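Justification of resources, computational component.

The compute hours requested in this renewal are based largely on the per-chain cost of generating structure records like the one below. Each record pairs the submitted sequence with a full C-alpha cell output. That output is archived, and it is also reused by downstream analysis tasks.
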Amino acid sequence: MSYFAHSKNNDGIKHLLKDHLASTAKISVSFGKSDGEKKLLRIAGLLHDLGKYQPEFQYYLENGGKRGSVPHASWGAGYARLLGLSEVSFIVDGHHKGLPDRADWQDDTDDFKNGEVNQFELIKRMFLEDNALTENDLNHSLFKYSNRLERELYIRYLFSILTDADWLDTEAHFDSKKSGTRKALHLEIEKMTTKLSCFMKTKSMEGEINRLRNQVREQVLMKATTPCGFFSLNLPTGLGKTLTSLSWALEHAKTNQLNRIIIVLPFINIIDQTAQILKEIFGNDSVLEHHSNLTEELADGDEEHYDYKKLACENWDYPLIVTTSVQFFESVFSRKPSKARKIHNIADAVVIFDEVQTLNKELVAPTLEMLKNIQSLLHTSFLFCTATMPAFERRENFEYGIEGIVGLIDDPKSLFELDCIRRVNYHIIEDFKDVTFETLSSWIQPLNQATLVIFNTKKEAKLFYEMVSHDDSQWDKRYHLSTFMCPAHRKQIIEAIRQDLINKRKILVSSTQLIEAGVDFDFPVVFRALAPLESIIQAAGRCNREGKMVCKGAVFLFQLADSKMPDKTYEACARHARMLIQENPDRLYHYEFFENYYKQIIGLFVNPDKHQINTARSRFEFETVSNRYRLIDQQTETVFIKDYNDAAMMLYEEIKYKAYLSSSDYRNIQPYCVQLYANALNKLSAFYAPTTPGLRIWTGEYNENTGLKTEITNDPIWIV
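The structure output for this chain reads:
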C-alpha cells in the first residue's frame, strides 16, 4: 500500500509520504549548525508526519472530511517522547496547531507513553522501513543548557526550522512555480560597503555637525571587529545613527561571518523613510520591508520581483530586512508556525534596534531575557540605537538586565554636551499649571514661526486643530496628524509638512506622539504636552534638528487642563518626569538625566514582567507566553476606508464578492485602513460578522484633514 502526505497538485500527482518526510528532514538538516543539531533535525523531519500512516488519515485524504478530524501530529510527538527527545516531541506536536503548553503536550502524548495506542508498533515498523531510520540514528546525546529559558528558546528555534522545512517542501509539491520564485540571496558585504561609502561621499563635509558625524562613524567602525554580543549606539539626534549603525553592522557581520542584517523600528512611518534611504544606497532588490502596511509598487512586468520578496517575508530568508518591533518580537514569542518560522533566520545575524526607548516597559524583562537567550544560543549580535538610551544593564533589583553591553561611543556624554549639539532651549509654561487651548494658542501666536504641537491623545490633537482652523490670518497652512488617519493619508500629510518646512512656510501642526521617533521634521518651535521623559526628549528632536538656526530652537512644555493620557503607566511616568523637571529644569540638558529617570520608573511605577512571561517560559507554556506577550496591550479591529481615494475604491470592488481575503488582499488594503480599539467599535455600533472575511467597511464620514470622524450615532460600519 502507498501512503501519501498530501493530495493531488495541479499536475494530478499525489505527494508520497515517505518522500515528504525525507525531503522535510533534508531541508531541516540544511538549516542546522552542529552535527548533533543536524541529527536532531533529521529525526524531527522524519517523525513530524508519522501519524499520516494511519489508515484513517489516508481515507480522509482520499475522500475528504472536516479539517483536523484525523489528528496526526501527536503520533510523531508520542514516539519522540518515548525516545526521550522532548525537544523533538514538542515541535512535532505543534507543527500544525502551534507550540502547546507543557500540560497540553503531555495530554497529546500520554497515550503513546502509556502504550495505549493500537497498531503503534506496526506504524513504527513501516515508518522505519520506508525512511531507513535505524535504531542507531535514535541514539542521541542530550543538549546542555545553562537554564530553562535557554532550553525554551532552543525548542522555538528547532520548531522554526521544522515548520519552515515542512512548508517549503509542501509548497514545492503544490506550486513548483511559486517555489522556484524563491531566491537564495546572500549578504554581499564588500559590495554593500563600497556602495555605502560612495553614498557617504555625496554628503556635505562642511560644518560642525558633518565633522562630528564623520568622527563618530570612524570611532564606531573601530569596534566592529568585536565578537558577537550586545552593543549600544547612544547618539544625539541628527548625528546619523542610521547609516553609522549600518556601517558598523556590515563590518561586524564580515568579522563574525554573519548572514543577514535586520533593522527593527517601532513605527511603520519610520520604516518607509529608512527603507527608502537603504534602497537608494543598495538598490531595491537588496532591501526587504516587512510590516503590516506593505504594498510594493510594481513596474509593468515586474510581478516576479514582488513574488520573491513577498515569499521572503514568510521566513526572512533575505540579507537585509527592515521590519517593526511588533513583527520581530511577536514572532519570537509566538507559538504559531506562520510567525515562528522566521526565528531560525535570526541566528547568525546582526539585529539593530532603532529608537529602542519605545519598547514596552512592562515587557522589558521578558524581552531582554529572550534577547540574551538568542545571543547566547544563536550567535546573534544586538545593537541598541537611540538618543535616549534606557538603562538595560544588569543591576541591583534588575536581574533581567544585560551584562557587558559594549558602547560604540567611548564618551557619549561629551557629545551630548557640545554646544552645537544642544540645539534647543526648554521652556515650561506657567510652571506646569493647567492651561486651556486658548491659553496655549496665546503662547504660540506671538512666536510667529512654524510650530509643531504634540498632544497625548487623538481627541486633544483634533480639538486643537479644529479650534485654530478658524483663524485664517495667522498661518500659511494648518495640519493635523493622528492614527484616525489611514497610513496613505498620513504619509501624504507628512510629505506636505516636510516640503513646507523646506520652503520656510509658516505652518501649524497639531499631532499625536506618532511623529516623535524617526520622522525627520525640523521645526523652529515645538510645544509638547506633559509626557514621559523619553517622549519629551524625542519631541525636542523635531526642533532645530539640523542645527541650522542662528539661535537655538524653542521647546515649550505644558500641562493641558482636563488632559487624558493613554494609560496609567504612561501617566505615572509623565508625572514623575514633571516632578524631576520642576525640581531642577536644567536636568533636561544633562546626559545622565534619562538613564537615572529610567532606573527610577522601573523601580517605582513599572513591573518589568507584569504578565509573568518569564515564569511561563520557564514552565514551557508556549501558548500562554504567546497570548501574554503583546506590544500593543489593547486589541484593535481594522476598518477599511473604501472611499478614501480611487485606489481604495478599486480594491474594494476587487474584494467585495470574495468568499475570503488572502494575505495579499489584506496587505493591499492596509494603507487605507484605520485601527480602532474594540471598545470604540462597540460605541460606534459596530457589527461583528461570524463569517469570513469579516472585514469592516467604514461608511461614515472621513474628513480630508482629520481622518475618520467618530462623532456619529448611526451605524458607521458594515461587514463584507
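The radius of gyration is 27 Å. The first strand starts at residue 4 and ends at 6.
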